[in-house]
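User: Hi! I have a protein structure encoded as tokens and I'd like to know what sequence might fold into it. I'm fairly new to this, so please keep things simple.
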């Protein structure tokens, strides 16, 4: 059962062949891409979606595939959008579905398609544009549908078609065939079997230029075959098989030259008069090489005699004719025949002279009959090269059976009842290359292969009852390359049993009872050219990893493939640490299911060329990275069913060439990023049947499976959740991981967008609202300082604080100070004189404004451009607005036009609400200017919202 399960697992993956090393690489590489698909695999640039119970064409297949397998699904309709973007597709297999409808122009964009298979579906009608666009299609198969109707122009675009198989449908009339083939100028092969054709008239195909070379009209209930014109001038293969139809067909070929090029003719089961058949055979008299007359109902002898007069005929197939006896004259006139097939009859007896006249015969097939012994008739065939006697009742083989067979190259005796072979039975077969003795009852070889068979290359002995191999038992086979001994009962391999097999490259010993004692006796030491050794399912068992004194394969330096899988368990086992010593060129090692519990870290030190390793179905709950350190060329690794809890060992194993990893049915719950990153060449990952945790710990793995474009993760969309308990029954890839990780790309997008918007807003504001912002800034500062001073109850120290620019200091000191302090007695606060040293400038300004009853702003162009002056007028204006008192006096030293004031938002706003004093305008009446200024500084009886009006006369 374990083996069966394992084989089933392998059949579902792009697995490996048992006959060629690393065949999976041929299947997997080059990949179109290594991504994860919901219902398919990508193998060798082919999308493999067959046998998946699909009801529609998958949408996630990459557009770069060159082949697409969709066979054995449940697809009922092909839609226009199904094959829209596949410019490189050359092969499409849709056979064995339930397709009833194909939308018009569905394949119109598949301009590279060369082969389309729609066999075994449910199509009834072929619409006019169903094959539109398939200009490069060369092979179309629509076998076994229900096609009754074909539109007039259905095949018009198939200008390159060379092969059309539309057999097993319901066309009924050749007129429909004519509609088809007249549109196909390059058609070479046409298969029309089982279409219920009852008549064939050549006139129905006239006016059509046909270059058909192979025509199959088999299994039609043909009552009339009437050929009156040469409509098939280039025909070389013609199948008229009509098994099961009892009505006699009228066969009329009017011109004997119509079939002058036919070389292969199949008239098996045809029910026609002997005269008509003879007439047909006369038409191929100059070209026929192969004639098939299987399942003939009558007149077989007459037909054989008629056919054997054809000088070109070399092959005669006479299968399933219920022959029980071959007499001396049955094929007596067939002297030119080189290949005759009597298989699948009931032949029990053959006359000794039955084949005497067949002196050119090289191939004779008598398999699947009831012969009790090797017929003596074959002794009369000195030029025979291939003789097949499999599946008869032969129980004994004697030396004289093959006397005079010195030219024989291949002999088939499989599936008989042979229990023993005499020592010299094959002695005369000096040119024999292939000997098949499978599935007999042989218990001993009795030295039969100690006799010299100098050219034997393949010996098939599987399926017998051999129990031991004796020393030198194959000594007479110096050229043997392949020896198959599997499925016997071998329990003893004596030392030297393979002596003399220096050219053997393949040895199959699986499914026997071989033990480790047989391996340790050095029985393989003579096989110095061995490439493949299969020891699966034997009784090989080692208790621990103790090194062996004589490693079993130490002389097999050329061995490439080694299999030691076992189903015969003796309990937990180890593998000797030097078990693989000497295998310096080993490429594949299969150690499945041998109950290993531990592998020594030096196990693979002897196999630096190992490319494929299978450790599945063992009890290795942990693997050391050091175990893999010598395997720098490892490309394929199977570690399924070995109870691994993680893949962390791969992180330090440095398997940089690993391309294929299958680790099914372990106990992985989380796949870490560093594990995947440590396998840069990985193109195929199979983790089916593990116990995944469906939370944020697998967020990276989920995102990687969804987005990576290198590694194909097999069946990832069906990975189930086992933890936490609430997630059981859901799928791993259905988990929403957006909340698990910070989306760096999104954050960068938002940040960049915000920064750009901020810069745009800042630029706009600076350009258009600069003054308003400055005003708001100073207003804020004023508010802060106002809150600080508003509740202070100390009396004002000064009558007025004078705000001016340092460039205007001469006017303030020379003109204003003498007039206001000297003449009028006001006490003024000047920053160069009255500011407290060491205190912050802004604090000095604030204390001066709030420590004075009034603030006089001496305004000039330089004043407006000064930052500190702007702060002073801002603080003073806020005091004005907050206290609702006349505390601000504006004095202009220069006439400043309104256009120059527009950038200075604060000053311009104050001028709209207050009058001001202008020094230039007071040039003629300076006394009046100082009088007005003094009045502005004087106390008022009532403070109110408006400022005193100062008019310049």
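Assistant: Happy to help. Inverse folding works backwards from shape to sequence: for each of the 953 positions I chose a residue that suits the local structure. Here it is:
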């Amino acid at each position: 059962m374990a083996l069966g399960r394992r084989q089933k697992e392998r059949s579902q993956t792009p697995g490996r062949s048992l006959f060629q090393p690393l065949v999976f690489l041929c299947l997997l590489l080059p990949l179109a891409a290594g991504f994860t698909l919901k219902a398919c695999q990508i193998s060798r640039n082919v999308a493999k979606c067959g046998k998946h119970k699909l009801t529609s064409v998958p949408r996630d297949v990459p557009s770069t595939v060159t082949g697409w397998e969709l066979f054995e699904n449940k697809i009922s309709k092909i839609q226009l959008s199904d094959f829209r973007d596949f410019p490189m597709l050359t092969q499409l297999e849709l056979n064995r579905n339930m397709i009833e409808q194909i939308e018009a122009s569905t394949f119109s964009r598949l301009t590279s398609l060369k082969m389309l298979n729609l066999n075994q579906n449910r199509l009834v009608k072929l619409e006019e544009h169903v094959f539109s666009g398939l200009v490069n299609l060369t092979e179309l198969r629509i076998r076994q549908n229900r096609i009754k109707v074909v539109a007039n122009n259905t095949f018009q675009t198939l200008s390159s078609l060379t092969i059309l198989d539309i057999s097993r449908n319901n066309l009924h009339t050749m007129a429909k065939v004519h509609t088809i083939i007249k549109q196909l100028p390059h058609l070479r092969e046409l298969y029309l079997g089982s279409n219920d054709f009852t008549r064939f008239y050549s006139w129905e195909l006239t006016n059509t230029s046909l270059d058909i070379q192979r025509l199959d009209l088999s299994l039609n209930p043909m009552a009339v075959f009437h050929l009156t014109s040469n409509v098939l001038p280039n025909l070389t293969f013609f199948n008229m098989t009509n098994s099961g139809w009892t009505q006699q067909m009228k066969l009329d070929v009017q011109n004997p030259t119509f079939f002058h090029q036919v070389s292969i003719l199949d008239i098996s089961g045809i029910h026609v008069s002997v005269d008509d058949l003879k007439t047909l055979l006369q038409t191929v008299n100059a070209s026929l090489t192969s004639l098939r007359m299987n399942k003939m109902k009558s007149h077989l002898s007459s037909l054989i005699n008629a056919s054997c007069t054809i000088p070109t005929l070399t092959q005669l197939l006479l299968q399933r004719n219920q022959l029980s006896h071959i007499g001396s004259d049955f094929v007596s006139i067939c002297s030119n025949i080189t290949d005759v097939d009597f298989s699948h009859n009931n032949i029990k007896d053959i006359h000794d002279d039955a084949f005497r006249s067949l002196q050119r015969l090289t191939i004779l097939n008598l398999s699947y009959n009831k012969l009790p012994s090797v017929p003596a008739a074959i002794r009369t065939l000195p030029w025979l090269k291939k003789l097949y006697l499999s599946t008869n009742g032969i129980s004994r083989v004697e030396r004289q059976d093959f006397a005079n067979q010195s030219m024989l190259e291949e002999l088939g005796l499989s599936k008989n009842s042979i229990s023993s072979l005499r020592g010299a039975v094959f002695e005369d077969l000096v040119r024999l290359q292939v000997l098949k003795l499978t599935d007999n009852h042989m218990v001993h070889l009795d030295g039969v292969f100690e006799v010299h068979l100098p050219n034997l290359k393949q010996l098939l002995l599987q399926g017998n009852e051999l129990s031991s191999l004796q020393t030198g038992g194959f000594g007479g086979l110096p050229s043997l390359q392949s020896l198959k001994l599997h499925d016997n009962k071998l329990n003893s391999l004596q030392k030297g049993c393979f002596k003399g097999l220096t050219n053997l490259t393949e040895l199959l010993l699986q499914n026997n009872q071989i033990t480790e004692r047989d391996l340790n006796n050095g029985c393989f030491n003579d096989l110095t050219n061995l490439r493949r050794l299969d020891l699966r399912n034997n009784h090989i068992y080692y208790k621990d990893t103790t090194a062996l004194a004589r490693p079993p394969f130490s002389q097999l330096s050329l061995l490439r493939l080694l299999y030691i899988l076992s189903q015969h368990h003796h309990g937990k086992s180890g593998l000797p640490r030097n078990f693989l010593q000497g295998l310096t060129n080993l490429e594949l090692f299969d150690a499945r299911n041998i109950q290993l519990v531990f592998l020594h870290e030096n196990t693979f030190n002897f196999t630096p060329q190992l490319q494929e390793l299978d450790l599945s179905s063992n009890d290795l709950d942990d693997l050391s990275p050091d175990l893999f350190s010598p395997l720098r060329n490892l490309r394929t690794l199977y570690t399924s069913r070995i109870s691994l809890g993680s893949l962390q060992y791969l992180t330090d194993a440095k398997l940089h060439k690993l391309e294929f990893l299958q680790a099914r049915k372990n106990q992985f719950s989380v796949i870490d990023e560093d594990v995947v990153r440590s396998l840069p060449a990985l193109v195929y990952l199979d983790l089916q049947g593990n116990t995944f945790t469906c939370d944020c710990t697998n967020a990276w793995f989920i995102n990687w499976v969804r987005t990576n474009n290198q590694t194909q993760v097999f069946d990832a969309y069906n990975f189930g959740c086992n933890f936490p308990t609430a997630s059981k029954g859901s799928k791993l890839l259905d988990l929403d991981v957006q909340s698990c990780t910070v989306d760096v790309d999104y954050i960068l997008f938002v940040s960049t967008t915000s920064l750009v918007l901020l810069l745009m807003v800042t630029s706009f504001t600076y350009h258009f609202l600069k003054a308003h912002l400055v005003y708001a800034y100073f207003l804020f500062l004023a508010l802060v300082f106002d809150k600080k001073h508003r509740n202070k109850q100390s009396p004002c120290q000064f009558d007025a604080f004078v705000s001016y620019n340092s460039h205007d200091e001469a006017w303030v000191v020379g003109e204003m100070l003498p007039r206001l302090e000297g003449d009028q007695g006001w006490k003024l606060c000047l920053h160069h004189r009255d500011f407290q040293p060491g205190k912050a400038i802004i604090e000095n300004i604030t204390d001066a404004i709030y420590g004075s009853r009034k603030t006089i702003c001496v305004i000039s162009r330089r004043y407006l451009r000064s930052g500190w002056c702007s702060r002073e007028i801002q603080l003073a204006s806020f005091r004005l607005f907050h206290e609702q008192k006349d505390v601000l006096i504006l004095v202009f030293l220069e006439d400043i036009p309104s256009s120059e004031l527009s950038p200075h938002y604060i000053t311009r706003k104050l001028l709209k609400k207050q009058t001001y004093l202008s020094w230039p305008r007071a040039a003629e009446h300076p006394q009046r200017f100082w009088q007005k200024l003094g009045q502005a500084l004087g106390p008022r009886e009532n403070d109110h919202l408006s400022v005193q009006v100062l008019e310049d006369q």
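A useful reference point when you look it over: Residues 1-34, 940-953 have pLDDT under 50 and may be disordered. Feel free to ask if any position seems puzzling.
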